[in-house]
Write a structure and sequence with these properties.
Elements lengths: L1 E2 L12 E3 L5 H7 L6 E3 L9 E3 L5 E4 L4 H6 L1 H6 L1 H9 L3 H6 L2 H6 L5 H4 L38 H8 L3 E4 L3 E4 H5 L17 E5 L8 E7 L10 E10 L2 E10 L6 E2 L1 H7 L6 H10 L12 H15 L8
Parallel strand pairs: 1-3, 2-3
Antiparallel strand pairs: 4-5, 5-8, 6-7, 6-8, 9-10, 10-11, 11-12
Helix pairs in contact: 4-8, 10-11, 11-12
Bound molecules: flavin-adenine dinucleotide.
Flavin-adenine dinucleotide binds next to strand 2, helix 5, helix 6 and helix 8.
């Protein structure tokens, strides 16, 4: 293992970066990662939260997930990012895992994680999950690989319209970084040896409300089956703006613009939220074992949206 001395370290070419190591070490142990490792954890310039004069935040790629949850100023500005950071994995993983590693972690698909297997993602020419056990997989089928994207933070950053600072491509919107989910060989558009340096968030809207909701088979220490981030502004009792991003349902986290359109200019009520959430089901094309995720998607969206409404006082 070598240690990178700068983000543009050429030693990274051909090697795999190790930040917190919580994903890469597991793959090393199982044999799904081989070849040189370049430890980037000593690049202190990639760590921490910086505030810009316009009130927006820049998050260094090595910032620990725990910091995103614990920082009260960040939580006030981007509440759904704090909520997702506090809900994922375990306290131990959050203390070590970084925002860059979270975005670039590899898929959880058990066919990929089994080093004896072969699939598109591991360089093969098929998706064994399609005809195999795929009950944790997608319900919106975008391409040959049916594994859902594993990153919870990507869902929040998509909802916040974040952009990433990359060593080779420069500034890239998160949606472009994630791609459209149709390339079965990759879950992002990072180039060989390229690093995420930082995440840039837009100026926060102090008027908006935001909420994160997840459905998982265990409360702790598991990836979400379905997860949703909702942002909403309300004016005079009507929904003025709405932004929704979901994860666990497709090869990449998705914005649900058709649901957002159902919310804008409608009364800010639970009924509006649940009616709009139901529209998400129209996009779903479940696999034989993932039909249950349609109901989870509608329920999770409905929950996140209604939690954006002002509390009803008795
Ligand atoms: C029990 C359990 C439950 C979990 N639940 C969730 C969950 O609900 N949601 C969720 O999102 N995650 C979940 N995780 C995953 C966890 O969040 C990730 O393992 C962690 O975020 C990875 O960060 P890391 O810094 O340790 O990455 P590493 O293991 O160091 O790296 C992961 C990958 O990212 C690449 N990488 C790292 N940093 C950079 C960078 N700056 N630029 C480019 N590439 C980089 C590495 O080369 C590697 O390929 C869970 C993990 C466990 C063990």
């Amino acid at each position: 293992m070598t240690f990178a001395t700068s983000a543009r370290d050429t030693a990274l070419l051909g090697g795999e970066a190790r930040a917190g190591g919580t994903d890469v070490q597991e793959r090393r142990r199982s044999g799904r990662s081989s070849g040189p490792i370049v430890d980037i954890s000593r690049l202190d310039e990639l760590r921490g939260i910086a505030w810009q004069p316009d009130g927006s935040a820049t998050l260094g790629a090595l910032t620990a997930i725990e910091t995103l949850w614990r920082d009260p100023v960040l939580a006030a500005a981007y509440p759904a990012l704090a909520q997702t950071s506090g809900a994922l994995a375990t306290p131990q993983i959050r203390a070590v895992g970084t925002i860059g590693g979270n975005l670039a972690q590899h898929t959880r698909c058990w066919y990929y994680r089994n080093p004896a297997g072969s699939c598109y993602r591991s360089g093969g020419s098929s998706c064994p999950a399609r005809d195999g056990d795929h009950h944790f997989h997608v319900v919106i089928d975008l391409g040959p690989c049916i594994a859902p994207h594993p990153s919870t933070l990507a869902v929040a950053l998509l909802a916040y319209d974040a952009s990433l600072e990359l060593t080779q491509q420069g500034s890239v919107p998160i949606e472009a970084f994630l791609g459209d989910g149709t390339d079965p060989r990759r879950a992002d558009t990072l180039r060989q040896g390229e690093l995420i340096v930082a995440v840039n968030l837009p100026t926060p809207d102090r008027e908006e409300r935001a909420a994160y909701s997840r459905a998982s088979s265990r409360r702790l220490a598991d990836w979400a089956l379905v997860e949703c981030v909702a942002r909403m502004t309300i004016r005079h009792g009507y929904i003025d703006t709405a932004t929704l991003a979901v994860g666990g349902v497709a090869a990449v986290p998705l914005r649900l613009r058709e649901v957002e359109a159902q919310l804008v200019s409608r009364p800010a009520t639970a009924e509006t939220c649940h009616q709009a959430a139901a529209v998400a089901a129209r996009r779903c094309r479940p696999l034989p074992q993932t039909g249950y995720k349609v109901d989870l998607l509608v329920a999770t969206l409905g929950d996140a949206l209604t939690r954006c409404l002002p509390a009803v006082r008795a």
